[in-house]
């Protein structure tokens, strides 16, 4: 019987972390990988967040040879969606984040783990712990807003929220919480890829993607 791994994610960086974990399991077991995205954000209020995260999820699905499944859902029916998709693809392993489990527990006072173990006994369940608060993968940003980068003579880029014809890149700016300055991340598309670069006081020093930046430091 073929192994089928179902990774259940919502928007935010923790979703990318779960997908990476699922891809590692799939590689180890030579399994088929499926990514289930819960599309639960309000259509208008979180338009930028959805577009950026969905682009990242699509890119990761392509890189890992996974099938991307998007389902509209709300917190109260997450377990039903997981059960339905898991049965449709004959999932043998299911990966969820601790945040999903905590949310379900807060809503109904029960455990989504117990429900899934009872209703899908043939699948192994993996619960990935929430990252520590001091890890960069925690999503400590305000809602994304449309922004633009303009190249300077010193090859840095200035972040601006007004569009002009000479803008170099259009994307979405995610500002760090609890800061009065324009510090955070700028996400944009380049060469059919989604890049996320650091913004310090309204300036981007380099267009090197954050993940590539980490690799260079290793």
Query: What do we call the CATH homologous superfamily of the largest domain?
Result: HUPs
CATH topology of the largest domain: Rossmann fold
Please compute the radius of gyration using only Cα atoms: 19 Å
Strand content: 25-35%
Overall mean pLDDT stands at 81
Count of individual domains: 2
CATH architecture of the largest domain: 3-Layer(aba) Sandwich
How can the largest sheet be summarized?
6 strands, antiparallel
With strands numbered from the N-terminus, the spatial order across the biggest sheet is 10-9-8-6-7-11
Low-confidence stretches: 132-138
Characterise the protein shown here.
The protein is elongated and about 60 Å long. The longest helix has 18 residues, at 47-64. It is an alpha/beta fold. The protein contains six helices and eleven strands. A six-stranded antiparallel beta sheet has the order 10-9-8-6-7-11, with helices on one face. It has a five-stranded parallel beta sheet with strand order 3-2-1-4-5, with helices on both faces. Helix 1 packs parallel to helix 2. Helices cover 33% and strands 29% of the residues. The model is unreliable at 132-138 (pLDDT under 50). It has helices spanning 13-29, 47-64, 78-88, 98-108, 112-119, 210-217, and strands at 4-9, 32-39, 67-72, 93-97, 124-128, 145-151, 157-160, 169-175, 184-190, 193-199, 203-204. It folds into two domains: 4-128, HUPs (Rossmann fold), CATH 3.40.50; 145-217, no CATH class.
């Amino acid at each position: 019987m073929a192994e089928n791994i179902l990774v259940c994610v919502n928007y935010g960086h923790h979703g990318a972390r779960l997908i990476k974990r699922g891809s590692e399991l799939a590689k180890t077991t030579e399994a088929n990988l499926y990514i289930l995205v819960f599309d639960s954000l309000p259509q208008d209020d979180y338009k930028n967040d959805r577009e950026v995260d969905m682009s990242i999820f699509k890119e990761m699905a392509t890189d890992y040879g996974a099938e991307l499944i998007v389902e509209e859902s709300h917190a109260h029916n997450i377990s039903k969606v997981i059960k339905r998709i898991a049965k449709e693809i004959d999932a043998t392993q299911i990966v969820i984040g601790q945040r999903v489990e905590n949310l379900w527990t807060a809503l109904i006072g029960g455990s989504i783990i117990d429900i899934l173990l009872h209703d899908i006994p043939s699948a192994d369940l993996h619960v990935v712990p929430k990252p520590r608060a001091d890890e960069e993968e925690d999503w400590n940003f305000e809602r994304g807003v449309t922004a633009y980068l303009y190249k300077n003579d010193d090859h840095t880029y200035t972040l601006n929220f007004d569009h002009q014809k000479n803008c170099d890149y259009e994307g979405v700016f995610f500002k760090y919480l609890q800061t009065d300055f324009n510090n955070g991340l700028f996400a944009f598309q380049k060469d059919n890829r989604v890049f996320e670069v650091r913004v310090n006081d309204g300036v981007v020093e380099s267009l090197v993607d954050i993940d590539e930046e980490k690799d260079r430091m290793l």
